[in-house]
Amino acid sequence: MPVLHLQYGMYVWPCAVVLAQYLWFHRGSLPGKAVLEIGAGVSLPGIMAAKCGAEVTLSDSSELPHCLEICRQSCQMNDLPQVHVVGVTWGHVSQDLLALPPQDIILASDVFFEPEDFEDVITTVYLLMQKNPKVQLWSTYQVRSADWSLEALLYKWDMKCVHIPLESFGADKEDIAESALPGRHTVEMLVISFAKDSL
């Protein structure tokens, strides 16, 4: 398992295609927005956001320099020199994490993969939400087990989530944007925010 874990960021996963479709559907609201993709890897959602006019920062684990290099290569191949790449390790408070400016949207494609990482992901998102309590986490995840749920963890961190029906943004097909990647996988789209979003 550790070998695959090191290579997670080297592939475009079904969830990335669904999240990119959500961004495309909402492209009119993206210009000028500060957007951070966490666990970016190949960075399809972040690249889509940047192509739609958002001010994007891509991040992946500072402990996996090859994943950060993949982020940089994705920017290079898509002619996006203005996109910043930064190492952020979930659950670790670092200078790079603290130096990030307030974000409007945080993107997370399939970061809820290993249950032992969930709390670290949420901790990192919570720290980012402290800078802008109105920030939203736009997240897709692939349902792999009925044995776990994010809701209890979100409640613990005073967050809430809204499940977005895939058909509401044209992502309920086996093929999206000429990609067969979503296939027959069960992918969920969530918008996560502070439970007290009237802050």
Structure description:
The model is unreliable at 1-6 (pLDDT under 50). This protein is of the alpha/beta class. The chain has helices at 2-7, 14-25, 44-51, 65-77, 95-99, 118-131, 151-156, and strands at residues 34-38, 55-60, 84-87, 105-109, 136-142, 159-164, 187-194. The termini are far apart. It has a seven-stranded mixed sheet. It has a single domain, classed as Rossmann fold (3-Layer(aba) Sandwich), CATH 3.40.50. It contains seven helices and seven strands.
- Summed up, the helix count is 7
**Rg over alpha carbons:** 15 Å
The neighbouring-strand order within the major sheet is 3-2-1-4-5-7-6
Number of domains: 1
Poorly predicted segments: 1-6
- What is the CATH superfamily label? Vaccinia Virus protein VP39
Strand content: 15-25%
Largest sheet: 7 strands, mixed
Helicity, as a percent range: 25-40%
CATH topology: Rossmann fold
Features:
32% helix; 21% strand; SAM-dependent_MTases_sf; 7 strands; alpha/beta; single chain; seven-stranded mixed β-sheet; Rossmann fold; 7 helices; 199 residues
Describe the structure concisely for a colleague.
The chain is of the alpha/beta class and 199 residues long. Helices cover 32% and strands 21% of the residues.
